[in-house]
Amino acid sequence: MTAQPRIIPSEVELLQAERTTLANGIDLYILASDDFEVLRISFVFRAGSARQQAPFSASAAANLLAEGSTRLSAQQIAEQLDYYGSWYDVNIDRDYAYVNFATLSKFFDPTLAVAEEILLHPAFPEEELRIYAAKRRQRLAIERTKVDVEAREAFARALFGPTHPYGISSDESAYDRLTREEVVAFHQRHYTAENCFVVCSGRIGAREKAAVAALAERIPRRDDAGIVSFPVPETTHEVFVEHPGAVQSSLRLGRLLFPRQHPDFVGMQVVATALGGYFGSRLMQNLRERNGYTYGVVAAMVNFECEGYFAVATQVGAGVTRQALQEIYREIERLREEPMPDEELELVKNMMSGEMMRVLDGPFGIADVTIENILCGADNSVIGENIRRIRQMTPADVQALARRYLTRDSLVTVAVGPENPMK
């Protein structure tokens, strides 16, 4: 069999979403595709944990949306979604809550009726809140016994400061003090028209668009819709958290940089990918293949609405923590001091382009990318622009970015384990 030649895209033209601004100010985006008899409706609210005043009220508001409405119990909501084979999902991060409904086209009407109950009439029953809070407290307490979770939270505190909305870590006992009134207040303040946009993808005709618009227009407006002023981050450059008896140490390195809108964000994604963004990356070759310190290591650029940062994360054997840390520093310094070979950079470019093509496979993948672009103030033409910028990167460009942004004294280092490797 003759091997097929690899086709590496240099240009990508992505379907642009059709935007309509509704009477209450919500933007409705339509990505119509008749290839499959399915559709998805995504309601995106600026209702992440960075906006909460009471600890855990943001995640509780998101996760309890479907746990009973003023007209349906949690069981009835679940049974109706299950009966029609519809899919409901809610996710929350520091900045946003994402409420998704997916259904076969023929069951659009009953699924939208359940969506109305969840979005417009959540009851937040006291009993459901207490069950949820007890489970989440126990889960968080268990998670915080793991070195990687300790390191993740310590790294956020080191980057932003312990009281910054992006850095704060509340004690799990705060779940016991969380009240229904606090959850309801968060929902009323943040799940509003000013804080929302909607993306529909799949088989969306005129009738479906009109029905979604009618539902979205019923989301209320609120004049004081959760405006939050973010403080200046207070960064600590070295943090060690002792975890006696741990057989592994967890390491986090990185630094504050900039959000996705910055002109160097894409270039720094190339730098991060070269370091630890794929299986054959420099850190994987060093820490795993050559030295056997770890099973895996990743490096990435992370984007928040108001900040962005570069990060390296790995877990290594407790006895080789110091050596692993030095090797990470060494690989970063090598990227700063030596131009990348052309063949390696070409591989990195191909990996990044291929990953973009994978994410864009199907209408729901395109919808996810569209949501991300909207959150960054861009339309879908930015995908083609980003691929062109990646393809144009040279070894000198990579080296210049590493030199500019990854100086040793700018890096934040966090270690969690039995011994401090930074002494």
Q: How would you characterize this protein structure?
A:
It is built from 15 helices and eleven strands. The longest helix has 18 residues, at 126-143. Strands 1-2-6-3-5-4 form a six-stranded mixed β-sheet, sandwiched between helices. It has a five-stranded mixed β-sheet with strand order 7-11-8-10-9, sandwiched between helices. The protein has 423 residues and is of the alpha+beta class. Helix 1 packs across helix 7, helix 9 (265-276) crosses helix 15 (395-405) and helix 11 crosses helix 15 (395-405). The chain folds into two domains: 18-216, Cytochrome Bc1 Complex, Chain A, domain 1 (2-Layer Sandwich), CATH 3.30.830; 238-417, 2-Layer Sandwich (Cytochrome Bc1 Complex, Chain A, domain 1), CATH 3.30.830.10.
Put the structure in a nutshell.
The strands form 2 sheets. A 6-stranded mixed sheet has the order 1-2-6-3-5-4, with helices on both faces. The longest helix is centred in the first third of the chain and has 18 residues.
Q: How many strands, which pairing sense, and closed or not: the largest β-sheet? A: 6 strands, mixed
Number of domains: 2
Identify the CATH architecture of the largest domain.
Answer: 2-Layer Sandwich
Oligomeric assembly:
single chain
What would CATH call the class of the largest domain?
Answer: Alpha Beta
Q: Tell me the strand order in the biggest sheet.
A: 1-2-6-3-5-4
